[in-house]
Write a structure and sequence with these properties.
Length: 180
């Protein structure tokens, strides 16, 4: 189905970002000045290129584990990060820290500023922990990738979709209200 194709494309975008040397260089660099003045512009350019390749991604955020340093690109000014960087697309840093390594998440999220709903997709960026050299295999978080998938892209998949002769497909929120 079209929704499965959209989901597969979004998961593909997540995988690309999780393997990106530019993202990893940003996350692993401890020098704040180098990260902000040299690396962040390159990272933002890469995120903008991702939005060009995957136009349904309205916001892409890369967050370091400290919850303060982040890079973000948005197709518009809505959604995304608050002024402190403690929340990405409405997800608290504490909630992001509960993610399991190697396991992406997908959820619907109410965007406070825009007042609408988006699909959030993301995952933890991990490296082997220093103790895993002894064979423990544990992973250490280095940051997070969070992407907002525009519901307009999804709406285009369901808009005017007929079910049978007279039925229509409608996307609703948790309270049963039309989401689009």
């Amino acid at each position: 189905s079209e929704f499965e194709e959209l989901q597969a494309s979004a998961l593909g975008a997540l995988s690309i970002l999780q393997k990106s040397p530019v993202v990893w260089n940003y996350l692993l660099t401890e020098n704040d000045e180098l990260r902000h003045t040299v690396m962040q512009p390159e990272l933002r350019a890469e995120l903008k290129a991702m939005q060009g390749a995957f136009p349904f991604l309205s916001v892409i955020s890369i967050l370091r584990t400290n919850g303060i340093d982040y890079a973000r690109v948005a197709a518009s000014q809505e959604g995304g990060t608050n002024a402190t960087g403690k929340t990405i697309a409405g997800l608290s840093l504490a909630r992001l820290r509960l993610l399991e390594p190697g396991r992406p998440f997908i959820t619907l999220q109410q965007r406070e500023k825009a007042g609408d709903v988006c699909i959030l997709l993301g995952g933890m960026m991990t490296i082997p922990s220093p103790s895993s050299a002894s064979g423990s295999g544990t992973q250490m978080s280095r940051g997070y990738v969070v992407m907002e998938v525009s519901l307009n892209a999804f709406a285009n998949l369901v808009y005017d979709r007929k079910l049978g002769e007279t039925g229509r497909l409608l996307l609703v929120d948790a309270q049963g209200r039309p989401a689009l």
